[in-house]
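We close this part of the discussion by returning to an individual protein. The sequence in question and its structure tokens are set out directly beneath this paragraph:
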Amino acid sequence: MKLPVVFILITVMLDAMGIGLIMPIMPSLIREVQGGDLANAALWGGVLSTVFAVMQFLFSPVLGNLSDYLGRRPVMLVSLAVMALDYLVMAIAGSIWLLLLGRVVGGITAATHTTATAYMADISEPSKKAANFGLVGAAFGVGFVLGPILGGVLGGFGTRAPFYAAAILSGANFLLGLFVMRETVTDVIRRPFYWRRANPLGAFRAVSSLPGVRELLWVYFLYSVALYVYPAIWSYFTEARFGWSPQVIGLSLALFGLTMALVQGVLIRIVLHRFGEARTVLLGLGADFLAFGMLTVVTSGAVALLLTPVAALGAVVAPAIQAMMSRAVPDNQQGELLGVVNSVHALSMIVSPLMMASVFSAFAGADARFYLPGAPFALSMLLLLLAAAIFIHSIRAKTVP
């Protein structure tokens, strides 16, 4: 594998690790700088997570458009340098407001995922884009697994240790990129930067005007909202339904992240070769529909774990959809497209936790009229059905590439 590709995959992995790395120590850190009890810390934790996702939503199109104009290399390297400095600031933060500022900056710089994916699109042949986007997804999955594990270990050395580790990793990756990353945006495909297209709504209008892209963006959004039922309510659902401990919950999430990485890094190439992109999307949606249906009513923790590989099969959806959209967009608009895709993904991270947590509370609370902790998975099934209906209609109408 070429060094620039290795650098891109490490960058995406660190994006995912940066989120999970600090999760184990956030409750203690928030109480350390703010005081109060665990409930208050959870409230501030929710604020910090939401701010992070909102910044990703707002700035992903900005960085995507900038990378179409300035090039992938400067946008990527500057973002990594700022990310390393941001982790250092959070490591010494003595107030909740400085932590909040850190999450604002972190959400902006985490939009490097946009530029990384655009870079991968630049260097991929059209027929290999879905498989290479799968590598990006696999790198994210590995980071999702390693982050909480490493964060828990480093948390034993103090609440600031994970931030110092994240800063070192980001800085080292910046140095790697400085030496190995070559520019892929040439004068032939360079596109002027316009602020009216760099905001999420302007970028969405510009990209969605291309044939078939609007429908695929809706499918991607509905799929992402449905899939985020896992991080949104899994901890609460498994404790309520199976009585799992935090350790078992952590291991189950690690298993999910690992199987997703295997699906996107290895299995997707076989599936794409055999079924093609459109059928791969439908296969993934169907696998998640089946898994979520069983999780809605399952009462055995062992069965829930066995369903993990089935749910992970749905990970083929995102790379296949991204490849279909990438082919529909000119070379000089790849960064803008991936910026919009990342914004849609960030929007799902804002919408899904609120929606899924509300449904869980309504059906798993002490005063619930009908006790069904798996109700959020039933909602996800409906969202997947809607996504599949839009996708099938688009294929029949021949509006998607």
Remarks:
- The chain has a mean pLDDT of 81.
- The CA atoms of residues 50 and 242 lie 28 Å apart.
- The chain is about 80% helix and 0% strand.
